[in-house]
Every structure is written in structure tokens, then in C-alpha cells.
Amino acid sequence: MHEMAVADGIIKIIEEKLKEQDPKAEVRKVHLKIGKLTCVEPEALRLSFEILSRETPLQKASLYIKSIPITGKCKDCRKNLRLTKLDFACPFCGSFRLEIKTGRELFIESIEIK
Ligand SMILES: [Zn+2]
């Protein structure tokens, strides 16, 4: 499952940071930004995080997931787009020549510790 690997990565990154900066800290909140193009399911990610964070400084942390829509621009009709489906055709002219601007994000925006 894709989300397991993502949750594992998030936990490892934060654990490393804590080791350097504040080894006794407990993480309360983790704010994430996740683009729709990453195909990460927020519910599956929460579940994976809950399982994998046991016995780590993140075990009491709640995940706050901000979903980033897929937006871009059509290279043919030059219109700005917001795609709701993953079919990648311009809704105005049907072109497949799209420039994707957002939707690939997958990062930790901030964490709150105690
Ligand atoms: Zn177009």
C-alpha cells in the first residue's frame, strides 16, 4: 500500500528532526500538504500513520491533511484549468497538452510539539 510508505517516510523525517533539535519532544500535530495527483488517500494515510507511529514520539500526533487540487494551464486554448478527474484533457477544448501547476505536492508543512 502506497500510503504505508508515505506514512513511514513522514515519521522518519520528523523523528530525524527531533533527534537533532529536541529529543524529548512529543509531537501533537502534523500538518501535511498533499496534492491530488499523488493518489494518496487521506483516510488510508491516517490509518497507516496510526499503526506506524506506535512507540515513536509521534504516537499521539494528529494528522491535518490539506488537499491540493490539480490545476494547470492548457497549452492550446491558454485557459487555466482545475481538473477533477485524472483524465488530463482540457475541459474547454479537449486538448491533452496541459501544463500541470499544482497537485504533485507531498510535504510536511509544519509540526507542533509539546
Ligand atoms: Zn484547452
Fold and architecture overview:
With 114 residues, the chain is of the alpha+beta class. It has one domain: hypothetical protein PF0899 fold. The chain is 27% helix and 33% strand. The chain contains 2 helices and 6 strands. The strands form 2 sheets. A 3-stranded mixed sheet has the order 2-1-6, with helices on one face. Strands 4-3-5 form a 3-stranded antiparallel sheet, with no helix packed on it. Helix 1 (2-21) packs across helix 2. The protein is elongated and about 55 Å long. 19% of the residues are buried. Bound molecules: zinc ion. Zinc ion (ZN) is lined by residues 74, 76-77, 79, 90, 92-93, 95.
Low-confidence stretches: none
Within the CATH hierarchy, at the fold level, what is the topology?
hypothetical protein PF0899 fold
Helix content: 25-40%
Radius of gyration: 18 Å
CATH level-1 class: Alpha Beta
Short overview:
This protein is 27% helix and 33% strand.
Keywords:
alpha+beta; hypothetical protein PF0899 fold; 3-stranded mixed beta sheet; 3-stranded antiparallel beta sheet; binds zinc ion
Secondary-structure blueprint:
Elements: H1 2-21, E1 27-35, H2 42-52, E2 62-68, E3 70-74, E4 80-83, E5 98-102, E6 106-113
Parallel strand pairs: 1-2
Antiparallel strand pairs: 1-6, 3-4, 3-5
Helix pairs in contact: 1-2
